[in-house]
Amino acid sequence: MSQGNYSVLFLCTGNSARSIMAEAILNRESAGRFTAYSAGSHAKGIVHPYALDLLSKLNYPTRDLRSKGWDEFAGAKAPALDFVFTVCDSAVAEVCPVWPGQPMTAHWGIPDPAVVQGTEAEHRLAFADAYRMLSNRIGIFVSLPIASLDRLSLQKRLSDIGRTKD
Q1: From CA 87, how far away is CA 105, in angstroms rounded?
Q2: Per the residue annotation, which of 1, 58, 74, 96 is the catalytic one?
Q3: 15 is catalytic
Q4: Which of 20, 115, 153, 156 is 20 to 30 Å from 63 at the Cα level?
Q5: Is 67 helix (H, G, I), strand (E, B) or coil?
Q6: pLDDT of residue 74
């Protein structure tokens, strides 16, 4: 595992909301210690407008956010990954590519705000809840003393983050 600047890939099925928000949060909150990416097993090709709107209102840069397939990160020209996190329940059950370098992995399931039924206010609340959960988990993650943890201890901590009560 690299020292200092770690690469993290957030995976979801559609790469339109949760994984996109996680990418934006980690890139801003990590103060340069991490470079975050996101991808989907069946990327929708567009970022959900509510995700973009929420991130914009919270002053995150959104211009470069895009929905993309995970195959972008499985090839020889892909960045070396230190961590891969699934953030939706359907992606955790899928067969993932073999990631070069054997990054640490964990499942941090978050309910899908894009499938919520109801009013616009209920939809936006679901996105805000997903953002809050991701922000909490990423806050715990960036505070880990990664360099001083052995691989087994780090794996346990990463898995525990996914079970954080939101």
Answers
A1: 11
A2: 96
A3: no
A4: 115
A5: coil
A6: 82
pLDDT tens by residue, 53-66 = 999 999 999 999 99
Is 88 among the catalytic positions? yes
- Full-model pTM: 0.92
The catalytically annotated residue of 8, 21, 51, 88 is 88
Full set of structural domains in the chain with CATH: 6-160 (3.40.50.2300)
Which residue ranges in the chain fall short of pLDDT 50? Answer: none
Given a contact cutoff of 8 angstroms between Cβ atoms, the answer to whether 40 and 18 are in contact is no
**Given this model, what pLDDT does residue 96 score?**
62
12 is catalytic: yes
**Tokens 């329940």 correspond to what residue?**
89
Instruction: Give the other-Cβ count within 10 Å of 77's Cβ.
Output: 6
Candidate list 12, 47, 78, 110, residue with the active-site label: 12
